[in-house]
């Protein structure tokens, strides 16, 4: 953990050397996410709910996607660069250092646009929760924190696992990572609006439903799905474990970029 934050701190210093770029990047991220919120608001001006889910419930799903995406960008942006490191041979530098390659990868880059996503996400979530009558207890508030951390862990684990496919597909920018990332867009809406095949995809194969849908069901006590939301921490542990397994398996295949 000490090494991780040391590495991350150095990356932050290098980016903050250009303050104007940092400000523009952060506000562009906020504006982009607000555009998505306006899109949802426009839809709900025409319809009362989406398959039984109200406007503020869907906003909460959106907010969770923003928060977890922001955490992945701000603190774990290095996962997106793994394919490039393998392709270029720069991954060799990580292997000769006395530190875990995984730690060095995830702390290798900082995406400050993630800060804008996190701020926007928490603001939207706060507004949504304030507009829905929910009986809050210390236990429920603590569980909300655990769900947000678990959802973020799922997002980061999926990023790492898909980025590790770069050990097999020698391409600087893996399309597998981009494809799985785009599947996360499906989790911005209730999964009940999709076919069973799509639901199985984002619940079992690529569990983005545990990033937004099931935690939202728990927060607002939607009886049909709230108990499933309590499984989110277990799903997070499973995803992290599988991401590490995929990374280490790919690492054994690494042959550098030399002749």
Features:
mainly alpha, 68% helix, globular
* Rounded mean pLDDT score: 86
Count of alpha/pi helices: 13
Strands, count = 0
Q: Assembly state here? A: single chain
Low-confidence stretches: none
The major β-sheet equals: none
Percent helix, as a range, is: 55-70%
Judged by helices, strands and strand pairing, the structural class is mainly alpha
Percent of residues in β-strands: under 5%
Give the radius of gyration.
19 Å
Report how far the terminal alpha carbons are from each other: 36 Å
- SSE order, one letter for each helix or strand: HHHHHHHHHHHHH
When the domains are counted, the total is 1
Given the C-alpha coordinates, what overall shape results? globular
Describe the structure.
The chain has 259 residues and is an all-alpha fold. The protein has one domain. It is globular.
Summarize the structure.
The protein is mostly helical and 259 residues long. It is built from 13 helices and no strands.
């Amino acid at each position: 953990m000490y090494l991780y934050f040391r590495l991350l701190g150095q990356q932050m210093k290098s980016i903050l050397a250009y303050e104007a770029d940092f400000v523009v990047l952060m506000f562009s991220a906020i504006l982009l996410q607000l555009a998505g919120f306006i899109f949802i608001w426009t839809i709900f001006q025409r319809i009362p709910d989406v398959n039984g889910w109200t406007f503020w419930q869907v906003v909460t799903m959106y907010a969770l996607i923003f928060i977890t995406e922001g955490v992945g960008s701000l603190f774990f942006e290095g996962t997106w660069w793994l394919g490039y490191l393998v392709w270029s041979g720069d991954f060799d530098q990580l292997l000769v250092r006395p530190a875990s390659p995984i730690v060095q990868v995830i702390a290798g880059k900082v995406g400050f646009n993630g800060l804008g996503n996190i701020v926007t996400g928490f603001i939207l979530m706060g507004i949504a929760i304030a507009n829905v009558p929910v009986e809050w207890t210390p236990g429920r508030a603590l569980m909300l924190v655990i769900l947000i951390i678990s959802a973020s862990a799922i997002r980061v684990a999926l990023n790492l696992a898909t980025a590790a496919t770069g050990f097999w597909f020698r391409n600087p920018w893996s399309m597998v990572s981009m494809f799985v990332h785009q599947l996360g867009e499906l989790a911005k809406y209730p999964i009940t609006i999709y076919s069973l095949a799509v639901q199985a995809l984002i619940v079992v194969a690529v569990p983005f439903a545990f990033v937004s849908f099931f935690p939202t069901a728990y927060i607002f006590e939607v009886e049909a799905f709230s108990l499933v939301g309590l499984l989110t921490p277990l799903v997070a542990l499973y995803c992290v474990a599988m991401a590490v397994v995929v990374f280490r398996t790919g690492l054994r295949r690494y042959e550098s970029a030399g002749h």
